[in-house]
From TrEMBL:
Pfam families: TetR_C_33, TetR_N. The keyword Membrane does not apply. InterPro entries: Homeodomain-like_sf, HTH-type_TetR-like_transc_reg, HTH_TetR, MT1864/Rv1816-like_C, Tet_transcr_reg_TetR-rel_C_sf. This is TetR/AcrR family transcriptional regulator. Keywords: DNA-binding, Transcription, Transcription regulation.
Length: 212
């Protein structure tokens, strides 16, 4: 180990000691690891603290309860989902193709990040109004799909109807496809998640298409 002036050695951070922001990040990562291994039901502040190597009390300095911890993880997952959908929607495509790409991106992102995706169905997060930041993240992600449907309606690709209702139906459909894939109940021989998503999304959009 290199010596400091005067022959002193630099001090290592004691095990289990974190700066404020570092501990919050460490607890989120630990809790996500628990979700990956044992599901959302196994998450607790004390379990996350044990993984990190700090006292359970230390976790309460960052999250008031399990619900707050789950909400913070789910918010991160939704922000990532929103980015994936926006990137898909930014492609140089026709309105109908762009809408399809957004739906495929939803399923593909969920398949690539199953732990974050599972958090969206955690019972503790059923009422998103209890977690304003999570609700804002959900609305932002949903807004990508809603805007795409409105754009399709403006060009006559999607039939005229309540755009929010159509978006909710589309969200429910792609969410269901994603869940079946993540849960291993929608396996198709020789097909990957993107292929299954694309086929399923096309079935949905045939129902929305004003020209059919």
């Amino acid at each position: 180990m290199a010596r400091l002036p005067g022959g002193l050695r630099p001090q290592k951070k004691p095990a289990g000691r974190y700066h404020h922001g570092e501990l919050r990040r460490a607890l989120l990562d630990a809790a996500l690891g628990i979700v990956e291994k044992d599901g959302t039901g196994a998450v607790s502040l004390s379990a996350a603290a044990r993984r990190v190597g700090v006292s359970p009390q230390a976790s309460y300095n960052h999250f008031r309860d399990k619900g707050a911890l789950l909400a913070a993880m789910a918010e991160e997952g939704l922000r990532g989902l929103e980015r994936s959908m926006r990137e898909a929607g930014a492609a140089d495509l026709g309105e109908g193709e762009r809408l399809e790409a957004i739906g495929v991106a939803y399923v593909a992102h969920a398949s690539a990040h199953p732990a974050h995706f599972r958090l969206l169905s955690a019972p503790e997060l059923a009422d998103k109004t209890e977690h304003p930041q999570l609700l804002a993240a959900y609305e932002a992600a949903f807004g990508v799909l809603l805007a795409a449907i409105e754009a399709c309606q403006a060009t006559g690709v999607v039939r005229k109807a309540d755009a929010r209702k159509l978006a909710r139906a589309a969200w429910a459909m792609v969410h269901g496809v994603a869940w079946l894939l993540v849960d291993g109940q929608f396996a198709v021989a020789g097909a990957d998640a993107a292929h299954v998503a694309r086929e399923s999304v096309r079935v949905l959009f045939k129902g929305l298409d004003a020209r059919r």
